[in-house]
Amino acid sequence: MQLYNTLSAKEREELIEQANQERLTISFYKYAHIGNPQIFRNHLFIHWNELDVLGRIYVAHEGINAQLSVPAPNFEAFKKHLDSISFLENVRLNIAIEQDNKSFLKLKVKVRKKIVADGLNDRSFDVTNKGVHVNAEEFNRLIDDPDTILVDMRNHYESEIGHFQNAITPDVDTFRDSLDIIEKDLAAHKEDKKLVMYCTGGIRCEKASAYYKHKGFKQVYQLEGGIIEYARQVQQLKLENKFKGKNFVFDHRRSERISEDVISHCHQCGEPCDTHVNCANEACHLLFIQCESCAEKMDQCCSDNCKEINALPYEEQKKLRKGKEASNKIFKKGRSEVLKFKR
To answer: Which of 199, 266, 273, 291 is catalytic?
Structure first.
């Protein structure tokens, strides 16, 4: 029985174009006890592959973290299958503000030790003792309170292109890096301030809120559904939008525009820009912000060296890459010294 992808991204892209169907980009997560993640993973792959679901899904003993796309005509069948799984019945689905039929081009369901790499020993505290979940309207009221400290639980490359007004945006590469830094910086306010957190879809705050309560913070809140759900509620309920810029997302779209504000700059020339790209040199694949002018000038590369390599025949590029381990830390590499205007 097929339990893995057999099509390349290019082949899948062609099939999506031929199908000419609208696809919905969705994300969700759920902390739950899963006895055998491998069996659960196979179960999901079999059913979702039949529904033409594509995406990146992580399964662990502690639950599931999913970002995916599903053909709109198959949504009801997909939702019915989710509801047939006891701990996923009526799970909140974050539906993307900006849709793209090619947000995902493969179905990857992977078993991991954790659904988010947080570096925490979950046995040392009660992960179910979470902070208070608030909706968009409650969140807006909270962050207007002078006794509130608002913290962005995302990484530097995410908050750089968009964040809430007056939020603390830790200059970190990973979620696990931010946890101790935030606790140390806010240690004096564990008793007297409201700690309000947000992230992309809510999953990082879910764990962080329990961790900070364990560390002695008395008033802990989190934005339910994250920025994705906040943007939906702002549109639906005609609320004031306090988010500025774009929301970084982990699929081929790379971001969703939440407001018209452009708060970041091209990393190569310094002009206002909030478009993330990956360096065209496959051996580099650096994630950085590049404007259209620099993209044309640099052939979509991050440096002159990468531009020269990318101009070589493909076979020569392959020879240069041979024997070199491909880095999977493309986000951290965004701090490369070749980026003159990286801030």
So the answer is: 199
Q: Is residue 291 annotated as a catalytic residue, yes or no? A: no
Residue with the two structure tokens 């306090």 = 242
- Given a cut of 60, is residue 148 above it in pLDDT? yes
What residues contact residue 319 under an 8 Å CB cut-off, 6+ apart?
none
Instruction: List, in order, residues 6 or more apart from 115 with CB less than 8 Å away.
Output: 29, 31, 58, 59, 60, 62, 63, 64, 65, 203
Tokens for 266?
A: 């091209």
Tokens of 232: 């939906």
H helices present in the chain, as ranges:
9-19, 37-50, 75-83, 136-143, 156-159, 175-185, 203-214, 226-237, 292-297, 304-310, 314-321
> 43-91: per-residue pLDDT in tens?
999 999 999 999 999 999 999 999 999 999 999 999 999 999 999 999 9
Average pLDDT across the chain, whole number: 92
Query: What pTM value is reported for the model?
Result: 0.87
Contact 279, 298 (CB under 8 A): no
Q: What angle do helix axes 136-143 and 226-237 make, rounded to 10 degrees?
A: 100
